[in-house]
Prior knowledge:
The chain has helices spanning 3-18, 22-27, 45-56, 111-115; strands spanning 29-36, 61-70, 73-82, 86-97, 100-107. By secondary structure, it is an alpha+beta fold.
Amino acid sequence: MSPQDTGAVIRGYYDAWTSGEFGQAASLLAPGLRVEVPVNSYPDARSFAAALEGFGSLTTRTELLAAMSSGSDGMLLYDMDVPGLGTLRVAEHFTVENGKITRIRQVHDTAALRAAGFVG
């Protein structure tokens, strides 16, 4: 897969979930998706997609700050506003294989999420 394809997949995923098209975002996740996030755990793509829709639907604004890809790896850096939490800065590292996201590693400050009870 070329870096342009990886970039297109991860940008398509971001554009889909940030516009409320959660089904479209989920269609870009491989069934065996591996997820590494600072809070909660998601054993498969379906559980992660459900969480993405639940939390993503709370988001009132996102701003993509940077996007890059090389080979099968890509990264996004963005700010997202969530009522009661304020602005969260999120860095996501993706692995893309055969046009599907096979791994997501996400980094963000968890203090506001923990205080609001989003940890389970």
